Amino acid sequence: MITFFAGVPGGGTSGWCRREKELTPMWHSRLWTYFWMTKDKGIMEKPKTVNLFLDSGAYSALTQQTTIDIKDYIAFIKEHKKYIDLYANLDVIAEANNDPLKAKADAAQATLKNQKIMEKAGLNPLPVFHYGEPFDYLEKYLAKYPYIAIGGLVGVPTGLICPWLDVVFSKYICDSKGMPKVKVHGFGMTSLVLMLRYPWYSVDSTSWVVTGRMGSIYVPRFSNGKWIYDVNSHKIAVSTKNPNVTQSGKHISTLSPAQRKVVVDYVESKGYKIGKSSFHYELEGYELKPNERWAEKKEEMTNGERLVEVIEEEGVSNRYQLRDELNIIYFNDLEKTMPQWPWKFKVTHSPKLF
Fold first, then answer.
1. 196 Cβ partners below 8 Å, 6+ apart?
2. Which of 15, 270, 323, 351 is deepest in the core (most CB within 10 A)?
3. pLDDT tens readout for residues 164-221
4. How many CA atoms are closer than 13 Å to the CA of 36, on its beta-carbon side?
C-alpha cells in the first residue's frame, strides 16, 4: 500500500515551501490539492524523490462555497504536468437536499461527464467513485480503468462505511477468490481500521499532521518484544498544552509507569525525545528569552499575566514539527508491514447494505 501524505505541514502555503523541503527526505509520496494550490498561490515544483498526486479539491471548494472551473484545472495540469505523477478527475460532490439518492446519482453523472471532458482534452485522470453513489457508475469505471479512486468517505461513521466497503470490495473490486481486479485509491483514508481491512493499492491521509497539531503521536502496540502494526495503534497525547493533560489515561503524564515506558521507548527508538518544559506567569510586557514562548493567547490572560512556556529540552511534547516527523515515520513503518499488493480480501460476514 502506498501512502500519499496530504495536508499542509506549515507556513499556510501549498507547494514546496521551506517546511515541505525539510520533510521531503521523509516521504516518497505526497498529495497536493489544486484548490489550495491556486488559492494560496503555491509554487509547483517537485524533487525527483517524491511521487506527487494532485487532487482537484472539489470537497474543499464545496466547504468554501465556491466551485472549480474544469478548464482552469485542465490548464493547470497541462502547465505543470512534468511535476505531477498522478492526478484525479474533477469530481462533483452531492449536496444535501430532500432527495439524497437523486443527488448522489446526479453527482455521479456529472463526475463521469468531467472524466470524459478531461480525457477529450488529452488527459488521463484517475476516475472517482463516491460513497453512496449508484453502483452502475462503479461498474463503468471497472470495465475501463485499471486504477480508480473511492471518495466521499470523510465524515461518514466507520459503522456505515464498513458494510458499504465490504460490498464494494467483495462484489465489485475483487474476483471470486477475493483478489482485487484493479488498483484502488482511498481518498481521505484516516481510519487505520479501514486502511488495514481492505486491499487498497494506495491511500492518502492528513492524519499525520492533524494528529500532531492536536498534540498527539501514533504509537504502535508492543507485544513479545516487537512493535505491532497490523492492529489499530495507540494515539497518545504528549503536548504540554494538550487539554487532556489532567485527565487520567488521556495523556502521557497520566499513564501508568509501564505504559509510559512503552511510549518513551518507542519515541526514543526513532531518535526523538519526549521533551521537557516548565511554565511561569509574566506580565504582558515581558520580553521572551530565546528558549521561551507564550503558552496562552492574549485573550486568555489572567489578572494581566500571561503563561510562558520554557523549553528545557526539545521533544515531541513541545514541538509540533517533531510530532509531524514521528507520525510520518509511523505511517512509513505501517506501509512497510502491509502485505504486498495485491492481497486477498475476505469478509467475515455476508455483506449487506443498510
1. 230, 231, 232, 338
2. 323
3. 999 999 999 999 999 999 999 999 987 888 998 999 999 999 999 999 999 999 999 9
4. 17
Tell me how far apart the alpha carbons of residues 295 and 215 are, in angstroms, rounded to a whole number: 14
- Residue 304's alpha-carbon distances to 260, 279, 285, 287, in angstroms, are 36, 16, 10, 15
Task: Tell me how far apart the alpha carbons of residues 109 and 140 are, in angstroms, rounded to a whole number.
Answer: 11
Cell of residue 39, nine digits: 488559492
pLDDT attached to residue 293: 94
115 class by beta-carbon count within 10 Å (0-12 exposed, 13-18 middle, 19+ buried): buried
Q: Determine contact, residues 293/307, Cβ cutoff 8 Å.
A: no
Query: How far is the C-alpha of 52 from the C-alpha of 49, rounded, in Å?
Result: 10
Three-state DSSP class for 325? Answer: helix
pTM: 0.90
Sheet holding 276-283, edge to edge: 276-283, 305-313, 292-294
pLDDT digits (tens, 9 = 90+) for 24-50: 899 999 999 898 877 655 556 677 889
| 77 or 243: which leads in pLDDT | 77
For the chain, how big is the Rg over CA atoms in Å?
Answer: 22
Write the DSSP string, 261-295.
Answer: HHHHHHHHHTT----EEEEEEEETTPPPPTTEEE-
